[in-house]
Amino acid sequence: MTITAVQGAPPPHPHEDSERHSRIKALRAAMATRGLVAVALTSPENVYYLLGLDHLGYFAFTMLVLPAEGDPVLVTREMERTTVLAQVPEVRHVTFADGEDPACAASRALRHVAPDGGTVGIEGRGSFLPPAVLDGLRAVLPALAWEDCTGLLASARAVQSATETGCARRAAVVSDAAMQAGIAAARPGVAERDVAAATYHAMISAGGEAPGFVPLIRPVAMLGQEHVTWGDRHLHAGHGLFLELSGCVRRYHAPLSRTVYPGYAPPEAVEAAESALAGLAAARTALRPGARTGEVFAAWQRAVGGMPRRHHCGYLVGIGYPPSWVGGPEVLGIRPGGDVEVVAGMVFHLMSWVERPVGHVVSDTALVTEDGCELLTTVSRELTVVA
């Protein structure tokens, strides 16, 4: 295990330095309010948000330790040294070798910045802090107290800056290109995997990065299997196909969904599409600064009429790493009774999902503006038949 102050090339996007410094300053102010001497963050989205570290090595234990004062400390596998040196040379870098307990490296990093008797914030409800590592930290550092701070950055990340919404807009262009390609490929007799291939080719060609979630492509008959995607099936005339995907630019996402019909659309599909479109229009109108998320859901529910109650009609999106484009296990959804205030700068995946008389979904990425909301994704929302 080594501790070094690394030097090297400047960050790949130096124009964002001031914004990241502001984020760290704001986080430290929140830490002071809660009496935290340091926070130990493990989600790749929060590490990226504060440092700009963009890689896939987070599959091995990674921890950003931000003390109340002084340089951030990054704990990673030794193999990530070159990446850290290139992307975030300003941090102190603590590494652990393969076969070494990551808790040992993390505890040494914390010991340098967290005095005995202090309280350290951790992402206790996140997906990237193994219980064995946390147990190891508690055993090696018994004089520290630990407090869950999973949501400490949630409010800040919920409202995007102009730089961030610019990335979301670019991601929406990628999303549109991928969706258009997928729809064009969805002809009778075509294999689902060929539709997926078309979306990926367009997504990458349009300037997109690897998204946090693969495109979800499956028949309407399997709509309720919400996180299942393409298989060895072929498309049949008159059988609906569900496509949900997101472009990704600088880790910001812009999801959208469409339901299309190869060959022809049966009458019940027309009815379902009309209901879903009415719901999307109502939710879009209600999604404006000052509204509560529960009010937006209620507007959508009224518009779709007697449809079964769904658990949400949208959720916040932004920075995302595999296995998700929502940026963590806790998602701010537009749900029944939700009391979160909608604020300009929030970006939602706004969904209208109906199940009668057949399943139909239409969704878009919606940016909340000062006087309403703007749909960033633009592929036709009308019922589409692919000849």
Attribute tags:
21% strand, Creatine Amidinohydrolase, alpha/beta, 4-stranded mixed beta sheet, 387 residues, 15 strands, 10 helices, disordered N terminus, Creatine Amidinohydrolase, Chain A, domain 1, elongated, Creatin/AminoP/Spt16_N, 2 domains, 7-stranded mixed beta sheet, single chain
Structure description:
Residues 23-159 form the Creatinase N-terminal domain. InterPro entries: Creatin/AminoP/Spt16_N (IPR029149), Creatinase/aminopeptidase-like (IPR036005), Creatinase_N (IPR000587), Pept_M24 (IPR000994), Peptidase_M24B (IPR050659). This is Xaa-Pro dipeptidase. By secondary structure, the chain is an alpha/beta fold. It folds into two domains: 2-157, Creatine Amidinohydrolase, Chain A, domain 1 (3-Layer(aba) Sandwich), CATH 3.40.350.10; 159-386, Creatine Amidinohydrolase, CATH 3.90.230. Helix content is 33%, strand content 21%. The protein has ten helices and 15 strands. It has helices spanning 17-34, 44-51, 81-87, 102-111, 131-140, 154-158, 162-185, 192-205, 267-286, 293-304; strands spanning 2-5, 38-41, 63-67, 73-77, 92-96, 119-122, 145-148, 216-219, 241-249, 252-262, 314-316, 347-354, 360-369, 372-375, 384-386. It has a seven-stranded mixed sheet. Strands 8-9-10-15 form a four-stranded mixed sheet. Helix 7 runs antiparallel to helix 8 (192-205). The longest helix has 24 residues, at 162-185. The chain is elongated and about 70 Å long. Mean pLDDT is 94; it is low at 1-12.
